[in-house]
Amino acid sequence: MSSHTPGFELPLRLLLAFRTLIEELHAELARQGHPDLRPMHGFVMQAIGPGGTTAVELGRTLGVSKQAAGKTIDTLERVGYVERTTDPRDSRRKIVRLTPYGLDALDRSARIFDALRARWAADLGEDRLQALESDLRRMTPGSLWRLDTPGWFGNL
Amino acid sequence: MSSHTPGFELPLRLLLAFRTLIEELHAELARQGHPDLRPMHGFVMQAIGPGGTTAVELGRTLGVSKQAAGKTIDTLERVGYVERTTDPRDSRRKIVRLTPYGLDALDRSARIFDALRARWAADLGEDRLQALESDLRRMTPGSLWRLDTPGWFGNL
DNA sequence: ACACGATAGACAACCTGGTTAACTATTTAG
DNA sequence: CTAAATAGTTAACCAGGTTGTCTATCGTGT
Questions:
Q1: Fewer CB near the last or first residue (10 Å), C or N of chain A?
Q2: Cβ contact B113–A46 (<8 Å)
Q3: How many domains, chain B?
Q4: What is the tens place of the pLDDT at every residue in A86-115?
């Protein structure tokens, strides 16, 4: 009966696996000229996308307050990954766009993530990895970006 | 060739899956009389264990500074999950022990995690879930508790 | 026996990434 | 043309981390 894995291992392994991937990503990004990029910056830039966005919108897609989104944009702007321009058609809005440097980071991230996935595929077998991904997809909500996370996992 | 899942989905799904489980756990814990328990409290209590520990030791097993461990213990103490008693054999040390309330929370957490795992098993099939667990085990470091995490995922 | 180094804990100052609340400036709707 | 809604900023706060410093106690070597 209780030859089963204890239930608490699953979430821990999921978190550990996540952290491991992220650490590897950022180690590699640092090597490739992006030493100041933090994990959350990557996520936020993904969420901004090549099309640009605004603070309110970003907050909504990320599931945090507009103020939090604003602060994050501030720091991204300070490090040179995004820039703000005011919308000509609505002078309340400020459009946040990735800079070329930001796009470069995003690009490299995508490639590194692919490489990491390839490493998993090599270790586990492509079929097995696909099963894993499909199982996770099945057990998680569809929306990839609303991580909804105070601190990206943080509180609550 | 590139019919593959983009690499960035994997980490996201891992995080999402983790968060989903944790949210379900805490929703259920709240229902069962532990509305103030935060995710990290659960982890820390697991790490403390029934035997008790000290701040320095806890910091080591969690991979954070002793000061951070101390602060966490403070808040756990305030909410009534742990208590500090000074070690009679070494008056520098203060032994942190789970209170009955804390033990109850830990207990319920374990049961809820088992139930959640059972739900996954029902959805995916026990064999498939075991494959998933074993794959994750393979791709992650052995030490479950050293989450090493500023904010449990937070920064860096 | 005792001084000295190592250890446990506490405290302070600071960082990040969240939160609410309050305020300004603009746009849109009635 | 006024009133409500919306975008952004600022401020005060919280949690959980960091480092650095300080005190008290323990253990060891001469």
A1: N
A2: no
A3: 1
A4: 999 999 999 999 999 999 999 999 999 999
